[in-house]
Amino acid sequence: MSALFADTFYWIALTNVQDLAHEKVKAFSRAAKPNVIWTTEEVLTEYLNYFAGWGPRFRRKAALNIENMLGNRTVRIVAQTADSFRSGFNLYRERLDKGYSLTDCISMQAMRSEGITDALTNDVHFEQEGFRAVLRGPQPALSAE
């Protein structure tokens, strides 16, 4: 399987057993077995921010998950840089008619830079930019490569 990009949606659903998408994401991850999962430091910041108010148990779990990602050879984390911020910001400015978050814009630009077409998300914004949100709809689908 080719590389996939993991959006915040994926990491949250994978972590939180009460998330409505948890079982779907877990089943997809077991079945798909991607060679490489890309994400960005901005996505991981958003992930940690999401669990910030959930108390020590979830904060500890989220922090441990990040530590595991940092040591996992199949997870590639794109570092935050002034260039990545500027690139994402430029897309944000170009799409004022959309509801894209800055994190999504940075993610989309990272996907373009790495030649990734499939995102582990249910976010329609990725589809609006020409990517495949493989966790949208009833059956996840991957592009053939």
How does this model look, in words?
This protein is of the alpha/beta class. It has one domain: Rossmann fold (3-Layer(aba) Sandwich), CATH 3.40.50.1010. It is 52% helix and 11% strand. It contains 7 helices and 5 strands; from the N terminus they run E-H-H-E-H-H-E-H-H-E-H-E. It has helices spanning 8-15, 22-32, 41-51, 56-70, 82-94, 102-114, 124-128; strands at 4-6, 37-40, 75-78, 118-120, 132-133. It has a 5-stranded parallel β-sheet. The longest helix is centred in the middle third of the chain and has 15 residues, at 56-70.
Largest sheet: 5 strands, parallel
Estimate what percentage of residues fall within beta strands. Answer: 5-15%
Name the CATH homologous superfamily.
5'-nuclease
Can you give the helix content as a percent range? 40-55%
CATH class: Alpha Beta
